[in-house]
Design goal:
Shape: globular
Mean pLDDT: 85
Low-confidence stretches: none
Order of helices and strands: HHEEEEHE
């Protein structure tokens, strides 16, 4: 990350979340923010409320994305697994349309947005995996809010 002049703000729902959220609110004025929505304690693929709160306070939309790789090495970690594309594999990256969260939403509305984001992440992941398997070769014409990028990992 240092090589690309990228910084990190660390925090989770169980440790340092409030201070991380405060730092992200300050950072949002001058930087793009990327968040992994599920933390080390899980459950996996469950969006935590912090990302929805951050979007509502800053006006920055949430853009879900997913990827799948045709051939990769699986590197198991202590709380997550990481995949590394093998040379000459295909990498499929799908990016959803921006989700705009209104300012000052209720707790119930926050939960609705969490579910919306989770649903979009799941849909994008399923589409990416369908690309990898060859089941589809282009995005469905109806009902998709995605953009697709296909690249060779050389």
């Amino acid at each position: 990350m240092r090589h690309f002049d990228l910084g990190a703000v660390r925090g989770s729902s169980s440790k340092g979340g409030a201070s991380a959220l405060k730092k992200l609110l300050e950072t949002a004025e001058r930087c793009h923010i990327v968040i992994t929505p599920d933390g080390p304690r899980g459950p996996r693929h469950k969006v935590k409320p912090g990302i929805v709160y951050l979007a509502s306070q800053t006006g920055i939309p949430i853009v879900a994305n997913a990827n799948a790789v045709s051939r990769y090495w699986d590197i198991s970690g202590s709380w997550t697994n990481q995949i590394m594309p093998k040379p000459f594999s295909k990498v499929f990256l799908l990016i959803g349309k921006p989700i705009h969260v209104p300012e000052d939403i209720s707790r119930e509305e926050m939960e609705d947005y969490q579910e919306l984001i989770e649903s979009d992440l799941e849909r994008l992941q399923q589409l990416a995996e369908q690309f990898v398997s060859g089941e589809i070769t282009e995005l469905p014409k109806q009902g998709t809010n995605s953009h697709a990028t296909i690249s060779d990992a050389a």
